[in-house]
């Protein structure tokens, strides 16, 4: 991921150089070819963050692209904070690598489970009843048509059975996620004190924090550094309120660009009636940006 940007734009190359130096790790080797380490969230989190920033800065250099607001889903919140200048890239990749390591260690592999529940205009009360008495929570409120459940493996399976057997079962699709831990569930809470110390070691400039959405609150951050850090700590075990983030980002006429090696968010925006242009490689960037204005 990101290899074509690294090959085309100086700004993108500088990102991979900076991330490699910050982590004492060859990020090009990690990102540009098959690598078994990408099965571990400790490595995939800095790899994705570095690639998204490499793409963003390459687009700014080549096309003059600018943005007024930033939002990202879970790990993507850190990409938004780097893009807005709230935290330096080198500090951010170190933070998310440690975030990934801690999250992986919080729950033994195989003990947790996550599943996406997909259906048109999901009924929240149906979901709540299915979770009663179980160590399962809504990890991601992604759109009117999708939530993700997270928790202990057996309990998540019990919730799946309840949903499949209930009156709404015929209208739901359950998709297990290939993840290594039950992210954004209370099972992650024990690592929060250690992660708070990681955040305290970084450099911050909250001037532009109000331009970045908070997954925890659903709205925008403010300039209060202590509050921003608390939100990022609690985000680990809290629900990602992405549906609210989308509404906050688009509360006025806005051109929305999704930038990254994949395009997982476009469907969520479509579910709230917002069109999104996705940039996943240089070719799609040229198609989306070269012949028109680049403000978003």
Explain what the structure shows.
The protein has 296 residues and is an alpha+beta fold. The protein is built from 13 helices and 6 strands. The strands form 2 sheets. A 4-stranded antiparallel β-sheet has the order 2-3-1-4. The protein has a two-stranded parallel ribbon with strand order 5-6. It is globular, with a radius of gyration of 19 Å.
Main sheet, how many strands, which sense, barrel? 4 strands, antiparallel
Q: What is the CATH domain class of the largest domain?
A: Alpha Beta
In the residues, how many domains can be counted?
2
CATH architecture of the largest domain: 3-Layer(aba) Sandwich
* Proportion of helical residues: 40-55%
Uncertain runs: none
**Total DSSP helices:** 13
CATH topology heading of the largest domain: Malonyl-Coenzyme A Acyl Carrier Protein, domain 2
Q: Please give the order of strands in the largest beta sheet.
A: 2-3-1-4
Arithmetic mean of pLDDT: 95
Give a nutshell description of this structure.
With 296 residues, this protein is α+β, with helices and mostly antiparallel strands.
């Amino acid at each position: 991921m990101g290899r074509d940007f690294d090959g085309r734009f100086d700004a993108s190359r500088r990102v991979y150089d900076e991330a490699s130096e910050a982590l004492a790790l060859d990020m090009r080797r990690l990102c540009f070819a098959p690598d078994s380490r990408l099965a571990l969230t400790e490595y995939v989190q800095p790899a994705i963050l570095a690639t998204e920033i490499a793409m963003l800065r390459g687009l700014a250099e080549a096309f003059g692209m600018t943005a007024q607001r930033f939002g990202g889903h879970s790990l993507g919140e850190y990409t938004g904070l780097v893009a807005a200048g709230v935290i330096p890239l080198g500090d951010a990749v170190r933070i998310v690598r440690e975030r990934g390591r801690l999250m992986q260690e919080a729950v033994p592999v195989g003990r947790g489970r996550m599943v996406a529940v997909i259906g048109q205009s999901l009924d929240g009360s149906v979901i709540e009843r299915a979770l009663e008495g179980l160590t399962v929570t809504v990890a991601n409120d992604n759109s009117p048509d999708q939530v993700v459940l997270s928790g202990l493996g057996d309990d998540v399976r019990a919730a799946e059975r309840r949903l499949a057997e209930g009156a709404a079962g015929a209208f739901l699709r359950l998709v297990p996620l290939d993840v290594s831990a039950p992210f954004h569930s209370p099972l992650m809470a024990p690592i929060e004190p250690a992660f708070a110390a990681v955040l305290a070691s970084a450099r911050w400039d909250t001037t532009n924090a109000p331009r970045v959405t908070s997954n925890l609150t659903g709205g925008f951050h403010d300039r209060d550094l202590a509050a921003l850090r608390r939100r990022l700590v609690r985000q680990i075990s809290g629900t990602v309120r992405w549906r609210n983030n989308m509404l906050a980002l688009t509360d006025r006429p806005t051109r929305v660009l999704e930038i990254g090696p994949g395009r997982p968010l476009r469907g969520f925006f479509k579910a709230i009636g917002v069109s999104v242009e996705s940039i996943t490689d240089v070719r799609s960037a040229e198609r989306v940006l070269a012949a028109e204005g680049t403000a978003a």
